[in-house]
Amino acid sequence: xxxxxxxxxxxxxxxxxxxxxxxxxxxxxxxxxxxxxxxxxxxxxxxxxxxxxxxxxxxxxxxxxxxxxxxxxxxxxxxxxxxxxxxxxxxxxxxxxxxxxxxxxxxxxxxxxxxxxxxxxxxxxxxxxxxxxxxxxxxxxxxxxxxxxxxxxxxxxxxxxxxxxxxxxxxxxxxxxxxxxxxxxxxxxxxxxxxxxxxxxxxxxxxxxxxxxxxxxxxxxxxxxxxxxxxxxxxxxxxxxxxxxxxxxxxxxxxxxxxxxxxxxxxxxxxxxxxxxxxxxxxxxxxxxxxxxxxxxxxxxxxxxxxxxxxxxxxxxxxxxxxxxxxxxxxxxxxxxxxxxxxxxxxxxxxxxxxxxxxxxxxxxxxxxxxxxxxxxxxxxxxxxxxxxxxxxxxxxxxxxxxxxxxxxxxxxxxxxxxxxxxxxxxxxxxxxxxxxxxxxxxxxx
Length: 446
Ligand SMILES: *Cc1c(COP(=O)(O)O)cnc(C)c1O
Known about the structure:
With about 450 residues, the protein is of the alpha/beta class. The chain folds into 2 domains: about 5-70 and about 105-220 and about 415-430, Rossmann fold (3-Layer(aba) Sandwich); about 80-105 and about 225-395, 3-Layer(aba) Sandwich (Rossmann fold). It contains 20 helices and 13 strands. It has helices spanning about 15-20, 40-45, 50-65, 70-80, 105-125, 140-145, 165-175, 190-200, 200-205, 220-225, 225-235, 250-260, 280-285, 310-315, 320-325, 335-350, 355-370, 385-395, 405-410, 420-430; strands at about 5, 30, 85-90, 95, 130-135, 155-160, 180-185, 210, 240-245, 270-275, 325-330, 375-380, 415. Strand 5 (about 130-135), helix 6 (about 140-145) and strand 6 (about 155-160) form a beta-alpha-beta unit. The longest helix has 19 residues, at about 105-125. The radius of gyration is 21 Å and the shape is globular. Bound molecules: pyridoxal-5'-phosphate.
């Protein structure tokens, strides 16, 4: 499988190069040269396969010769090492719980797959890979955990001091080891600016493989197809499901669409959005007008110009009518989201996080007009991740799952730096040169 840049101004590359580079040299997103068709036996046999076997079959054509089969199988076993149950919430509505991973978020799966692929490439080249990420809080945790203790990888995470939640900071700073948390005395924009400067710095580029792990990476994007197949492997109803996806950058939904094009039997998709409604407006009018994002309760979906929109266009050859036929989209206010959390809790005792609540509201709205259908929502985060907000809505404490207790009790390990590029550069040089960066050592002494 080759990958081309959507801007069509870069050479085609294989899976390994596309994964390491993230973005093509012309700044375009990578896209597979064709969408493989799954054979009917695979689809009818889903129920008898383990999650790792399903993941292997789906990713094999995309990975090609970049990773040998036995290694890919091992990567899949490590990636999918926790439960992903499909549970009934109420009549006709099921929920795929993608939040039982180490950071309680669906992003764990893509991040774990990417980290293990990069770990394999580092081992193969006998070279260190440094992963440099800026986070406003949420994605950083999944990346940090995904790479923790993966040999050959060092992760440098920049986060804005005082601007992430307590749980998020624990997830970024509690691990240590090959995870280096840099607490930036500035805001998220400063973090992003510093990361961009590092990628543009020739001297750093010459030191070794420097890569980002952001959500546009093909390894994170395409591995999300696995969610949908795992859901189908548990689907017992006799109609094809309608799937509601809480969407921000649209990587998740776009992966579901790819799976459907490959042959996965899904009836219809719902792009469930908060008040950041550019996509909903696009489905209604055919016009796509990106804007600045507005803050909402489901803040991981506060995106005014979704980066994967262009991949959806690419997948359907810019055919608006086709896109509209396959996807419906609804947007909800914070008040509607909060009411959904409350009502679902009252009637079923299930606690939804705000993102999952948006997906629930989306499916409910669709089923009101299409009462003969049944479907499932993707639960993208555990409610604990948004505990203060959700606890207020349901007037109830949320239990901390056993497997994250240790992170909640961990010591903070972070280096506080000013938002000046030379400071970041020194730290990156240290890591490339195998010098241990410790919280107590000022970067200048490194
Ligand atoms: C990132 C995220 C989303 C949005 O996913 P996209 O693939 O960007 O559309 C939804 N819910 C949660 C909890 C997230 O962290």
